[in-house]
Amino acid sequence: MSRGSAALTSARKEEIIQACAKLYETRSFKEITIKEIGAETSFTRTSIYNYFETKEEIFLALLQREYELWVAAMNAVMEAESALSRDQLARTLARTLTDRPRLLRLLSMNLYDMEANSRPERLAEFKVAFGASLNAVDRMLQKYLPALDAPARQRFLYAFFPFIYGIYPYTTVTEKQKEAMEQAGIPYAYQSAYDLTCACIIKLLEP
Fold it and tell me: CB of 51 within 8 A of CB of 119?
């Protein structure tokens, strides 16, 4: 593949991903179709299939990009901050994550089905980005809390990452859901994604 065609492929993939992101701002995964994504691009809808075979592959690529942006934010912290206390680390890590609401929303989707409907090579590309996020969090722990040994860091990762997959529905509640909870007698007190994440990290990092 020539340099020009590689650059075109990358640019068109990014345009498709960005079109998907734009639609996802106001619509749900189920509501969005490949046809609608194609209508937001500068080329024909059928051309999308040269880059992504399914809608799930497009969303997986969008999630991959969100992970990459999160990793970049964590790397920026590690470059800028030579030392952080336990509480400062909790607040900083929580902020790098919750500054990416699209990431949290995507994580609340059925990732199992998304991965099942993506080709192995697309899934592998995504897993690289996911692995980089695990590595970045681990490096933050090593840098700012050097007393934590490898087993302790692994316990943190295995608790923190499942937590972030489920936080979005607790922080983004519709009026319909509030009404249903009221009818069911379930008290609802709003907490932001940042507050919940920070509290979780502090708890997980307790000595």
Answer: no
Q: Are 60 and 114 in contact (CB under 8 A)?
A: yes
Residues 111 and 172 sit within 8 Å (Cβ to Cβ): no
Question: Between the CA of residue 79 and those of 75, 100, 189, 198, what are the distances in Å?
Answer: 6, 20, 37, 21
DSSP for residue 108: T
Nearest CA among 138, 165, 170 for reference residue 154: 138
> Which tens digit of pLDDT belongs to each residue from 29-64?
999 999 999 999 988 778 899 999 999 999 999 999
Percentages of the chain per state (helix, strand, coil), in multiples of 5: 75, 0, 25
- Helix 150-166 crosses helix 120-144 at what angle (to 10 degrees)? 120
Residue 201 and residue 163: Cα distance in Å, rounded? Answer: 10
The domains found in the chain, sorted by start residue, are 1-51 (1.10.10), 56-167+193-204 (1.10.357.10)
Q: Which residue, 108, 69, 75, is CA-closest to 92?
A: 75
Q: Are 78 and 143 in contact (CB under 8 A)?
A: yes
Predicted TM-score of the model (pTM):
0.91
